[in-house]
Each structure stands twice: as structure tokens, then as C-alpha cells.
């Protein structure tokens, strides 16, 4: 039987969190997967933790070259039909693969899925006091948004790495992640690969149940305001060089994707934290993209907001299995 999912987990100095990430994969209710953990030159105890899992994982090592090089190395060995990216400080809910597989089967194996994500800090929902309720760990009704492809989406949904499920043949077709980045220049790698596969469709965006938990902590890469800004400028430059598919006719949509994240990063993060120079530089270097994002947002006001549609067959399967329904 062919392998359904190949899970790629790049690891750099994450001894505090990586065990939970790996165990969240090994505890999946759907078991047709292989798991690659790639130590990216860690200097703490991360490699020892990974080795402790023995042959339950495929352990790879490399010098500190960044997560894109790590994922590319593992993807070259992967045998799965789909690649699942998981950052080593996040974790998957135990029904994630079961949910993905059901969506894939129901929709005839679409090339791109973005799982539903919840943010948390210290075991609690981010900005809330409540811990994860028990129903978070059992599958509920599946609701999705379906788009022609990723750059056609009309909802503000970031394509963070841990949400992504990509058909391996599509990943290989677009050439995978960037080859020239390092541990210091990988930022916005998630948006890079989303744009590279941006015209492959349909693209499925899950609204429920939550499949991924994104951890907020003191060492998140998003704390590097300048590095993220530099990464967005690099994406804008790549767009100008014609590195993303879709040609001129899809340029406005690609611009809107890049501009949406650039404007948000410039204002919500850089400006609010007093990094005025970084904010202004980012806006100046991505100005056409920011304008495209503003225009797209204005135009959405004249269209009905898309509603997440339930997959009725999958809901019946869940209820027949006696699974608890999760609250939205």
C-alpha cells in the first residue's frame, strides 16, 4: 500500500518543544504516514531527543542551513502522496491526518489543503485564559472553503507551514522550497511555497475542526521584525523577477497576497513596536503590492462573504463512529 502522508519536521534548537511535536504525529489516529525529523545543526539537546524515538522516525542531520534546505532534503526521500509540513514548536491534533484523508477522498485528491489553526501560549488559547477544552482533541464536523487556487482566495488566511498539506507531485513540479536561502534568510518560506503552488487547484481551506496548534513563545521567528520585513521584500523582488506562476493575468492576485502580509507586518508589528524605519522601508519596497491588497479588500465589500460548507458525508462518518462534536 502506498504511503499517504510524508511529514517533514525541520528542527533547530527546539529541545523544549520538539518532543511534543513528534509525539503529536506518532499519536495520529490515521497511521499511514512516514515521519522525517531533520536536525538543522542544533547546538542543544534536540538531536538527542530525536534519536530517542528510534526507528519510529526517519532522522536526518545537516549543518545549519535553514528549514527550507531541511525540508527539501527530506522531500527528496519522501514516498508519500502528500507532504505535511510541521514546525518543531507546533503540534497536530490527533485526528489531523484522519481529517485530511477524508477531505482528500471526498474531493478527489486536491493538490493543496490548508488546515485549520489555533494559536496557543503555555497550553492556553492565545489572548484567552481557557486551556484547550477536551473536545479540541476529538474530531468534529468538517467545514471547508473551496477556491480555484490559493491566489484566488478571498479570506485573510495565512499559509503558515504547519497548516500546509501539498501533493508531492506538485511540490516536485514547482521545484520545492528555495535552494539559496540559509538559516538567516528563510523568513516567509511559507508564503514562498504557497505562491509557487499558487495556481494549482482547487485549494481547500479548512475552517473546522482545528488540526494544528501554533505555539506562541519567546523564540518564534516572527519576533525578528527586520528579518521578516527583509523576507517580504525578497518575495516582492522574486515576484518582479517572474518567479511565481500565473503570468500577467494573475499578477494582481499575487500582488494582493504579498501586499496583504506586507501591510499587516508593517503596521501591526513593526510600527506598533516602534520600528518605524523598518515599517516605512517595507511599505516603500512593496508599495504596488500593498495597493493591490487594499484594492482587493475594498472590492470584497461588494461581494458576499464566503461561508464554510460542511462535508455532509464526512460529518455522517464522524457521528457514526461515535465521535464527539467539537464547538466552532
Provide a descriptive summary of the structure in words.
The chain has 328 residues and is an alpha/beta fold. The protein has a domain at 5-221: Spore Coat Polysaccharide Biosynthesis Protein SpsA, Chain A (Alpha-Beta Complex), CATH 3.90.550.10. Helices cover 37% and strands 19% of the residues. The protein is built from eleven helices and eleven strands. Strands 1, 2, 3, 4, 5, 6, 7, 8, 9, 10 and 11 form an eleven-stranded mixed sheet that branches. α7 packs parallel to α9, α8 runs antiparallel to α9 (276-285) and α8 (251-271) packs across α10. The longest helix has 21 residues, at 251-271. Mean pLDDT is 90; it is low at 314-328.
Show the helix and strand layout.
Blueprint: E1 5-11, H1 18-26, E2 33-40, H2 46-51, E3 58-62, H3 67-77, E4 82-85, E5 91-92, H4 96-106, E6 112-121, E7 124-125, E8 143-147, E9 164-167, H5 168-174, H6 189-196, E10 203-215, H7 225-240, H8 251-271, H9 276-285, H10 287-300, E11 309-310, H11 312-320
Parallel strand pairs: 1-2, 1-4, 2-3, 6-10
Antiparallel strand pairs: 4-9, 5-10, 6-7, 6-9, 8-10, 8-11
Provide a short characterization of the protein structure.
This protein has 328 residues and is an alpha/beta fold. It is 37% helix and 19% strand. It contains 11 helices and 11 strands.
**SS strand fraction:** 15-25%
CATH superfamily label of the domain at 5-221? Spore Coat Polysaccharide Biosynthesis Protein SpsA, Chain A
Query: Please, what is the oligomeric state?
Result: single chain
Distance between the termini: 35 Å
- Rg, rounded, reads 19 Å
Amino acid at each position: 500500500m502506498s504511503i499517504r502522508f510524508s511529514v517533514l519536521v525541520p528542527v533547530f534548537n527546539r529541545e523544549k518543544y520538539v518532543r511534543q511535536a513528534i509525539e503529536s504525529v506518532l499519536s495520529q489516529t490515521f497511521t499511514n504516514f512516514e515521519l522525517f525529523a531533520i536536525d538543522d545543526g542544533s547546538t542543544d539537546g534536540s538531536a538527542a531527543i530525536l534519536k530517542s524515538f528510534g526507528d519510529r522516525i526517519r532522522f536526518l542531520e545537516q549543518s545549519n542551513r535553514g528549514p527550507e534546505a531541511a525540508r527539501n532534503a527530506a522531500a527528496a526521500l519522501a514516498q508519500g502522496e502528500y507532504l505535511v509540513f510541521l514546525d518543531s514548536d507546533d503540534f497536530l491534533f490527533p485526528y489531523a491526518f484522519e481529517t485530511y484523508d477524508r477531505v482528500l477522498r471526498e474531493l478527489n485528491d486536491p493538490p493543496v489543503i490548508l488546515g485549520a489553526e489555533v494559536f496557543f501560549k503555555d497550553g492556553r488559547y492565545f489572548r484567552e485564559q481557557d486551556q484547550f477544552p477536551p473536545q479540541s482533541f476529538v474530531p468534529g464536523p468538517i467545514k471547508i472553503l473551496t477556491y480555484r487556487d490559493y491566489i484566488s482566495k478571498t479570506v485573510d488566511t495565512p499559509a503558515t507551514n504547519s497548516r500546509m498539506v501539498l501533493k508531492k507531485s506538485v511540490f516536485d513540479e514547482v521545484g520545492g522550497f528555495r535552494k539559496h536561502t540559509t538559516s538567516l534568510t528563510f523568513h516567509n518560506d511559507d508564503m514562498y511555497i504557497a505562491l509557487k503552488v499558487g495556481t494549482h487547484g482547487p485549494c481547500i481551506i479548512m475552517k473546522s475542526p482545528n488540526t494544528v496548534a501554533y505555539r506562541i513563545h519567546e523564540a518564534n521567528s516572527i519576533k525578528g521584525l527586520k528579518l521578516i520585513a527583509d523576507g517580504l521584500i525578497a518575495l516582492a523582488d522574486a515576484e518582479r523577477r517572474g518567479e511565481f506562476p500565473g503570468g500577467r493575468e494573475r499578477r494582481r492576485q499575487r500582488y494582493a497576497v504579498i501586499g496583504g502580509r506586507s501591510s499587516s507586518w508593517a503596521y501591526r508589528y513593526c510600527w506598533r513596536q516602534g520600528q518605524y524605519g523598518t515599517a516605512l522601508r517595507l511599505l516603500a519596497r512593496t508599495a504596488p503590492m500593498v495597493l493591490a491588497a487594499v484594492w482587493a479588500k475594498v472590492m470584497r465589500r461588494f461581494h458576499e462573504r464566503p461561508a464554510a460548507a460542511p462535508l455532509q458525508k464526512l460529518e455522517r462518518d464522524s457521528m457514526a463512529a461515535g465521535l464527539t462534536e467539537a464547538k466552532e
